[in-house]
Amino acid sequence: VQLVESGGGSVSAGGSLRLSCAASGFPTRPNCMGWFRQTPGKQREGIAAIRRSGGETWYAGSVKGRFTISQDSAKNTLYLQMNSLKPEDTAMYYCAVRRCWSTWYLPNSYDYWGQGTQVTVS
């Protein structure tokens, strides 16, 4: 089982980035996935989640209207489109797979995590 994030980098405030998370090795295609971010000394923050069946999405207030989570089932890839980036969006970003019945924004709802990709906004 593996989750591999990519697409991070450095961008100026107001710019955009698209993060990708490629999932592999799962016996069945993950149905519920999410994106988290973390800065040093702070707790991991749930920012977006999706349920593949039904297409439901959830967002933290800090990113709602700026970030969009989506999924390409054919490619088994999760995306996070980030627009209007702010310096406070600077963090390590992680994708994860959760149990669908659990709370989407809690880290302990998730069983599998990627290694993270750094996003820096200046």
Describe this structure in words.
There is one protein chain. By secondary structure, the protein is an all-beta fold. Helices cover 0% and strands 52% of the residues. It is built from no helices and 11 strands. The chain has strands at residues 2-6, 9-11, 17-24, 32-38, 45-51, 56-59, 67-72, 77-82, 91-98, 110-113, 117-121. The chain is globular.
Notable characteristics:
122 residues, mainly beta, seven-stranded mixed beta sheet, four-stranded antiparallel beta sheet, 0% helix
Count of β-strands:
11
Low-confidence stretches: none
Number of helices: 0
Helix content: under 10%
Oligomer designation = single chain
Beta strand %: over 45%
Secondary-structure-based class equals mainly beta
N-to-C SSE series? EEEEEEEEEEE
Average pLDDT reading: 96
Q: Could you give the distance between the termini?
A: 34 Å
Calculate Rg over CA atoms. 13 Å
What kind of sheet is the major sheet? 7 strands, mixed
Shape assignment: globular
SSE topology sketch:
Layout: E1 2-6, E2 9-11, E3 17-24, E4 32-38, E5 45-51, E6 56-59, E7 67-72, E8 77-82, E9 91-98, E10 110-113, E11 117-121
Parallel strand pairs: 2-11
Antiparallel strand pairs: 1-3, 3-8, 4-5, 4-9, 5-6, 7-8, 9-10, 9-11
